[in-house]
Design a protein that fits this description.
alpha+beta, globular, three-stranded antiparallel β-sheet, 28% helix
C-alpha cells in the first residue's frame, strides 16, 4: 500500500532530510586516507544524538551500525570497520535519519585521496544518473520513466545498473511501497501522484550488474570484483515538481 503524505508531513521529512544532508557535509570533510569507516559510524551516531535524532537502520533486522559503509567493489550494506581506508579507495556512506518519527534516506559516494580516472568517471556518471532520474519524478509520470532515464544514460557509457537492490517509498517506515527500479521501460509502471515520497538510489557498476552477498548476510558486492558507486536522495512528488528532501546544496 502506498502511503500519501500531507504537505505538513513532507515538511517534517524535509527537516530530517536537512539534518541528513548536514551529516553528509560533515562526512565529506572527514574522508581521507587513514580514517576508518568505524570512526565515521561513531561520529554519525553521536552527531545525530546531539540533535535529537536517531540512525534508523541501527537495530533493523539485527543490523548493528548507524551507517552502511561500502568500499570499492561493495555495492551496498557494507559494515563499518576499523581498517583504515587507503588512497585511491571509493566509499559509499548510506544512512537513514529518524527525526521526531519521520525518516529521510541518503547515500553518497566519496573518493579517498587520489582516485583513478575510472573511479572518478564512475562517481560522476552515477551522480548524474541520480539527478536524471529525479527529473522524471513528476506527477503523471511512471516509475519506468525514472528507471529508463538512469539506464539509458549509464549503459551507453559502458557501466551497468544493479538489479537486485532498488529504491522505495519512505515515511514513518524505512521501506514502504512502491519499489523504485533504476532500469525500465518509459511509460510503464506505477503512475506518480502528489504526496508520494520515494528514494531514488542508483547503484552503478564498472563491470557486470550481477552481485553476491557476503557471509555476514548484509554486504553486497560486485560478482567480478569491479568498482561500484551509489548516490541516493529522498524525493517528494509535489505539484511544483520533485522536491529533494536530502539536497546538500551543491
Amino acid at each position: 500500500m502506498i502511503i500519501i503524505k500531507t504537505e505538513e508531513q513532507i515538511q517534517k521529512m524535509k527537516k530530517a532530510g536537512e539534518l541528513l544532508a548536514q551529516v553528509h557535509r560533515e562526512i565529506a570533510k572527514m574522508i581521507r586516507p587513514g580514517i576508518t569507516t568505524m570512526e565515521i559510524d561513531r561520529f554519525v551516531e553521536e552527531y545525530l544524538k546531539e540533535r535529537g535524532a536517531y540512525p534508523e537502520q541501527k537495530g533493523y533486522q539485527g543490523y548493528k551500525y548507524a551507517i552502511c559503509a561500502s568500499i570499492n567493489d561493495e555495492i551496498c550494506h557494507g559494515y563499518p570497520r576499523e581498517e583504515a581506508m587507503k588512497d585511491g579507495d571509493i566509499v559509499t556512506i548510506d544512512m537513514v535519519v529518524n527525526l521526531d518519527g519521520w525518516l529521510a534516506d541518503s547515500a553518497w559516494s566519496y573518493g579517498v585521496g587520489n582516485i583513478s580516472e575510472e573511479a572518478q568517471k564512475l562517481l560522476d556518471v552515477t551522480k548524474k544518473s541520480l539527478y536524471l532520474g529525479i527529473e522524471q519524478a513528476v506527477i503523471g509520470n511512471r516509475l519506468g520513466d525514472i528507471g529508463h532515464a538512469i539506464q539509458s544514460y549509464v549503459e551507453p557509457l559502458g557501466f551497468s545498473v544493479v538489479r537486485n537492490f532498488v529504491g522505495h517509498g519512505i515515511g514513518k517506515d524505512m521501506h514502504e511501497d512502491p519499489q523504485v527500479l533504476h532500469y525500465g521501460i518509459p511509460g510503464r509502471g506505477l503512475r506518480l501522484s502528489e504526496g508520494m515520497v520515494i528514494t531514488i538510489e542508483p547503484m552503478i557498476n564498472v563491470g557486470s550488474y550481477h552481485s553476491k552477498v557476503d557471509n555476514n548476510g548484509w554486504t553486497a558486492r560486485t560478482i567480478d570484483g569491479k568498482l561500484s558507486a551509489q548516490y541516493e536522495h529522498t524525493i517528494a512528488i509535489t505539484k511544483d515538481g520533485p522536491l529533494v528532501l536530502t539536497e546538500q546544496g551543491e
